[in-house]
Structures are given as C-alpha cells and as structure tokens.
Amino acid sequence: MTDARVLLDTTVESTEAMGELGARLAAVLRAGDLVVLTGPLGAGKTTLTRGLGAALGARGQVSSPTFVLARTHPTTSGPDLVHVDAYRLSDPVELDDLDLDWDAAIVVVEWGRGFVDGISDSVLDVEIVRATGAGADDPDDLDPDDVPDEPRRVVVTATGPRWAGVAL
C-alpha cells in the first residue's frame, strides 16, 4: 500500500475534543471501512471510538473490548460499528477466529497495526501520540480512567482507493 496520504495532522486538546474528532471521522465512514487506531495506553483510542459511536448512533456502551476482543454495536445510521482490540492477540490469524463481517460493518481496530494487513486495500490509520513523559512511568500501571486531560497529536493517514478524494 504505497498510496498513503495524510488527511489530518492536528493537536487534540482534551478528552472532549477527542470524542469530537471521532464524530468527525464518523461523518466520512461507511460499511466496509477499516480504521486502525495506534497509540500507547491512555492515548485516547477508546475515547475516539466512543465519539465515533455516538455520532453513528451506536447502541450499547462503547468501551474498550480488551477482554472480549470485539464488540458489535448496531447503529441508527446504517452499518454496525465493530470495535476490536488486538492488544491481546498474538497472531494476525486470530482475527479470523472472531468471524467479523468486514464488508458490512465499520470496523475499528485498536492496536491493529500489523494485524490487519491484507484485510482491506483501503485503511484509515489513526495514530495518537501523547506528550513525552505524560502519564505513568510504567504503562502497565496506567489506569485509563486516570489519564490526565492533556493535548495529543493525532495523525490520520489514508491508504487505498476508498480514500481518494476524501477530506476531513
């Protein structure tokens, strides 16, 4: 996938603004879209997905699917929102075991880099970078509910023909 282009490179100032960015992304998403979220623990991946889900009219609480691996949220706007957490997966083949409907849903995969290669020729990659030194010294000690409301840099990169001509 060599046709990657940056759709957005911005600073998100707060948790509320991260949710608003999710809503902004929801406005351009449709069935069959694959969104990969990358960032450290507490970066705002689930917060962004909550905002996306709210804008789509997702039913059920959008929360981190770390222990269940994937949650499907029917929406009032059309395609289901499937929220996947690849953090605990050891091999990309394990995604096949989840039996996801990649073509009919909007699929958001946290920690998905390296796990979703080859699933789609079009991917929206969202990288969230926290300020250096922010949060806990040891990421394993980080409680996502205690993450400080601080600015994050968000870079949204689009790859593939689906994203030709799409702007954020």
What is this entry, summarized?
The protein is of the alpha/beta class. It has helices spanning 15-26, 45-56, 94-97; strands at 5-12, 34-38, 70-73, 81-85, 106-110, 123-130, 152-159. The chain starts with a strand and ends in a 9-residue tail after the last strand.
Sequence-ordered SSE layout with sheet pairings:
Layout: E1 5-12, H1 15-26, E2 34-38, H2 45-56, E3 70-73, E4 81-85, H3 94-97, E5 106-110, E6 123-130, E7 152-159
Parallel strand pairs: 2-5, 2-6, 4-5
Antiparallel strand pairs: 1-7, 3-4, 6-7
Helix pairs in contact: 1-2
Give me some keywords for this one.
globular, 168 residues, 3 helices, single chain, alpha/beta, 7 strands, seven-stranded mixed β-sheet
Can you give a write-up of this model?
- The chain is 17% helix and 26% strand.
- The protein starts with a strand and ends in a 9-residue tail after the last strand.
- With 168 residues, the chain is of the alpha/beta class.
- α1 (15-26) packs across α2 (45-56).
- The longest helix is centred in the first third of the chain and has 12 residues, at 15-26.
- α3 (94-97) links the parallel β4 (81-85) and β5.
- The protein has a seven-stranded mixed β-sheet with strand order 1-7-6-2-5-4-3, covered by helices on one side.
- The chain has helices at residues 15-26, 45-56, 94-97, and strands at 5-12, 34-38, 70-73, 81-85, 106-110, 123-130, 152-159.
- It is built from three helices and seven strands.
- The protein is globular and about 35 Å long.
